[in-house]
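Notebook entry, structure prediction.
Reason for the run: the old model in the group folder had no record of what sequence produced it. Starting over properly, with the input documented here first.
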Amino acid sequence: MKDKFCLDLTLEDLELWCKEREVPKYRASQIYGWLSSGAVTTDDMTNVPKNVRALLEEDFIFGGFELINHLVSKLDGTEKFVYKLYDGNIIETVAMRYKPGISVCVSSQAGCRMGCAFCASAKIDFGRSLSAGEILAQISVTQKLLGERIRSVVIMGIGEPFDNYDNVMRFIRLANDPNGLNLGARHITLSTCGLVNKIEEFTKEGLQVNLSISLHAPNDELRKTLMPIAKAFSIEKLMKSCKDYTIATKRRVTFEYSLFAGINDTPECAKELVKLLKGGLYHVNLISANKVPGTKFQSTSPSGVKQFRDILESGGINATIRREMGSDIMAACGQLRRGTIEAERC
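New structure, fully documented this time:
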C-alpha cells in the first residue's frame, strides 16, 4: 500500500528505490530535481521514461496540491494560495514581497488544535498534520507558480509546528538540502505558541533556524484568556525554556505580541512585559491585531501601538512594529483558515 508522499523522498531514498526497482541510479537525481522544482505528478518528468514513471506511481503518492483559490491583495500585492491535498484536506500558503525578496508563510497542519481565542484557524475542524514533503511543496509549488525564487520561509501558517514536531524537523532538513531547494537554515523561521517541552527538544537539535514565540500577554492570568496552552505551560516555564535556548544556541528569540484594544495593550501591560524580558537575548514584534470574523477582538490604534513600543524601548527592550500584509484577503497573522469561504467574501 502506498503510504509515502512523493515530496517526502530524499535523494538517498530515491537512490535506494532505484536499486530495488532495478532502475539506473542516475534517474534518482533526475526525479529528485523534478520534485524539488515543484512537480507533484510524473507528467512533468519529461526526461524520465514512462515505465519508470509508472513504477513511481505504483510505489508513492502523487497528485494533490490542486490550486483551488488564488487571491492577490490590493493593498500590498501579497498572494494567498489555497491548495487541496491528495486526500481532500485544504491548506493555505501566503507569499509576501519584501525588498530582499519573497518570503512564504507555510502551514504545518490542516487545522489547529491549540484553540487560541483570536485565531481563525482555531474556529475550524482539525484535519491532520502535514508530512514533511507537504510542507516542502508549499515552497516548491508556490515558487513554480510565481516564477520567482523564494528567499525565506516562515512556518507561521495554519497549525502549530511543534504539534507536528518530527515532520517539521524533517521539513527543515529537506529544505536545507543542497541537492534540493538549498534554502539556508537562517532563512527559515519557526513560530510556536509555546509548547515548552518541544522548545527544550528543539534546543538540542542544533539547527540555525530562527525561533519565534507567540506570547500576546505579559502574565499567566491574561494569557490564559487568550491561549489555552498557557494552562499547560506557565510563563515562568516558557521563559526558562527560552533563556536556555539562547544560552545553548547563542541565538535570540523573537516574541510575537498581537495588540488587542483594551485587553493587552495598556501601558501597564507594556511595563510588565519590560520586566519579563529585561536582560534576555530577545526581540519583540508588535502586531496590531487583525480582524477575524466571529471574534470579539479589535485592533489597537496606530498611536496605541506606537505608545506600547515606546514603553518597551525606553525599558531597554528591542521592539519593532511588524508590517501586516494581505489583511484584505484574510492572509495576515491570525486570519488563515482551512478553507476558502472567508477569503471569497473579502
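Summary: Residues 338-346 have pLDDT under 50 and may be disordered.
The old model has been moved to the deprecated folder.
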